[in-house]
Amino acid sequence: MQRSLSVVEDPRFRDHAGPSDHPERPARLAAVSRALAPRRDRLESVPPRPAGDEELLRVHTRDHLALVAESARRAPCRLDPDTYACAESHAVARLAAGASVDLARRVARGESPAGFAAVRPPGHHAEAGRAMGFCLFNNVAIAARALQAEEGLERILILDWDVHHGNGTQHSFEDDASILYASTHQFPYYPGTGDFGEVGRGDGEGATLNVPMPPGCGDTEWVGVLQRVLVPAARAFRPELILVSCGFDAHRDDPLASLDVSGAGFAAAAHIVRALADDLCGGRLVLLLEGGYAESGLEDGTAAVVDALLEETPATVPVPEAPPGSTLRGLVQRVAAVHGERIPAIGAP
Ligand SMILES: [Zn+2]
Known about the structure:
The chain has 349 residues and is α/β, with parallel strands linked by helices. It contains ten helices and ten strands. An eight-stranded parallel β-sheet has the order 2-1-5-10-9-6-7-8, with helices on both faces. Strands 3-4 form a two-stranded antiparallel ribbon. It is globular. Zinc ion (ZN) binds next to loops. Zinc ion binds next to loops.
């Protein structure tokens, strides 16, 4: 039997629109759709519905909900210097959060195969009380909390491979040992958080894992870090489901960032995370679109990831060499210095 993939795709996600020169624009989803189109006979469509207050309030403050709702009335406006709202933005942001929750819940119950949600606006910079970095509601954090509150899941891994650090997601779970937040991102770079030493606090110490990467890192470093750091961290954590903050802005075509990841790199990442989900979580894997600002990068990355998820079995991805003095070796050593006591397999040859 051929594998399938559940996908959220809806024209309403293009109704959130700002200034014509803003990088977070509706055309991003047209690029994603171009990648999905030739594969559509193997995709199961999951219709989106708006998130309710109770779901949003697990992550955000009541004041924040009111502020985003109010933005529709004074639209067009800015919620922060980078983050616009139009008259439809509040409704679209609720739809993105609700779609993320529903897709995650369906996958958690085994009602849907692994899933990909092509939603806008993105979410991982949104803080409890603040819109930020093109993000209104933190879709991935809201989905994780829904899985715990409504599906009884206890341990969830959030892998954030967007090129920016997911400050909002990290802060949502910083003192919580039940959610491992692991991020690869360009650093130093927007939003400025995500250094090696940010490991969580209190009960959550060790359940935040950051791999800040210098500009110029490509497939070797990106894929190498996933295999040498993320894989052992996930195995030690034993999640019941994996959520991916799936940005495509680490792609080499991206105009905002300076990593050099290719389509093959995204395919490798998808195979790695899928093998982990198959091994640890009964295949329960959900990817939520975050950033990605080159239409070519979005199309190339989406096609690579979706194809990897549709393969019968995940491919074995060779572990890139990390010779002494290499950037990859340096990154792994820095992470091992912080997390190696808890996760001795990090940095193992
Ligand atoms: Zn990003």
